[in-house]
Design a protein that fits this description.
The structure is a single chain. With 79 residues, the protein is α+β, with helices and mostly antiparallel strands. It has one domain (2-74): SH3 type barrels (Roll). It is built from 2 helices and 5 strands. It has a 5-stranded antiparallel beta sheet with strand order 4-3-2-1-5. The chain is globular, with a radius of gyration of 13 Å. The N and C termini lie far apart (44 Å). The model has no long low-confidence stretch (mean pLDDT 90).
Length: 79
């Protein structure tokens, strides 16, 4: 139980460090449905964080998505 809480706190810190930066988020929605989202982490809350995409759409994810690697972060591609 202790390791899960520690991992969750670490995931929260890492996401918090990415807040406000341009990033690419790759989301595995299951059944071979992979999405690539471009944007910035807009808000960081206790249970979830929100991503504001370039088009203005807002998506929310939980920190458990980060721990299970359903959500992965990558640096922006060079233009």
């Amino acid at each position: 139980m202790r390791e899960i809480v520690h991992g969750l706190n670490l995931a929260k810190k890492r996401v918090g460090l990415l807040a406000g930066r341009d990033i690419i988020v790759v989301v595995n929605r299951g059944r071979n449905k992979i999405e690539k989202l471009y944007g910035k982490i807009d808000e960081v809350h206790d249970s979830i964080f929100t991503l504001k995409e370039r088009e203005g759409k807002v998506s929310s994810f939980s920190y458990s998505d980060v721990l299970t690697k359903s959500v992965k972060f990558f640096p922006p591609e060079e233009q």
